[in-house]
Design a protein that fits this description.
Blueprint: E1 2-5, E2 10-13, E3 24-27, E4 31-35, E5 41-48, H1 67-75, H2 79-91, E6 108-114, E7 120-128, E8 133-140, E9 143-151, E10 159-165, E11 173-178
Antiparallel strand pairs: 1-2, 2-7, 3-4, 4-5, 5-6, 6-11, 7-8, 8-9, 9-10
Helix pairs in contact: 1-2
Length: 186
């Protein structure tokens, strides 16, 4: 279930994300994350704006001069001619159908594994779009747990994770970082 909380400009779910695309995004322009909101096992997918896969291929594409002609043909309704120009002079380079673009490379995953004192109830995952804070809260047994995630300003370049529980000594688990060698492995 997803809903918009108009009182606090928030989105919330009543269950963890099953897939990456259902996570809540965080970012500061350089660092990015997708918070999935798991309970006993949390995965936060991490990104960095300067992390791209290297390529041995470097091409300088000079397509700007062709764009006015493409626009003229396209806006004039000459779609076939515009398509031919696109294939011949804009999209094709070095015998390839499309110019090579270095693919974005994920930074990795922050993995949080928790030992919980009982059955999980009252789960909620919320993204407050005014504050940029993702909150995951639930009750395990009689203990209320809460995690808050946010990205500090670009000058700081850190992601903050605050983990709290009612009562002292209630939080138990492991924190790990994981990164595969190739983006294809994600």
């Amino acid at each position: 279930t997803i809903a918009k909380d108009t009182r606090r400009c928030s989105l919330y779910h009543l269950h963890p994300a099953k897939e990456w695309v259902d996570g809540y995004p965080l970012g500061n322009g350089i660092l990015g994350a997708m918070v999935l909101g798991g309970v006993t096992n949390e995965r936060v997918a991490l990104n960095h704006g300067r992390l791209w896969r290297r390529s041995a291929e470097r091409h300088q594409f000079q397509v700007a001069a062709k764009l006015p002609e493409f626009r003229r043909l396209f806006l004039g309704g000459q779609f076939e001619a515009a398509g031919r120009l696109m294939e011949k002079d804009i999209m094709v380079s070095g015998g390839k159908m499309y110019p090579y673009v270095n693919p974005y490379q994920p930074l990795g995953d922050l993995l949080l594994d928790f030992s919980l004192p009982g059955e999980v109830t009252d789960y909620q995952r919320r993204l407050n779009m005014d504050s940029g804070i993702v909150e995951v809260s639930y009750r395990a047994g009689r203990v209320r747990f809460r995690r808050e995630y946010f990205m500090a300003a670009p000058a700081d370049n850190v992601m903050v994770v605050r983990i709290t529980a009612e009562g002292s000594g209630r939080i138990s688990g492991q924190i790990r970082l994981n990164r595969t060698e190739r983006a294809d492995d994600f």
